[in-house]
Predict the structure.
Amino acid sequence: MLRDLYQEVILDHNRSPRNCHEMDDATSCANGVNPLCGDKLTLYIKVADDKILDISFIGSGCAISTASASLLTDSLKGKSVAEARDLFSKVHASLTEDGSEHVDLGKLAVLLGVKEFPARVKCATLAWHTLVSALDDSGATASTE
Ligand code: ZN
């Protein structure tokens, strides 16, 4: 039942991704790749006064990578940079460390469904690594490898 719900949310975000477009006036952008699956994405953010005014992405990849990017943008619009980094830490720990499932991720908890499929975890974390690259404005391509 819960698994069906997870799948339904993932499929919905894959079918109609939120904030899926380029951004002309972004203050930073970053590219991310997951070579294992072939997922690629570009994340755009517009930050002013330490607040994420707008965030969007474009890319091509599997349903999980697209849904994760969609959920990420949906969650972070209007948040502070510190909140975004904090959310990255929570999501990353929840997906990659045992025993952190209790962390309250709100609607992002649907991503935890991929823990049952270890090969897909990198699909789910790709957008989050790319987010950190964009926040750091490092110019480097984020890779899950
Ligand atoms: Zn993938």
About this structure: The pocket of zinc ion is lined by residues 34, 37, 39, 61-62, 64-65, 123 (CB under 6 Å). The radius of gyration is 14 Å. The mean pLDDT is 91. The beta strands are 28-34, 39-48, 51-60, 142-143.
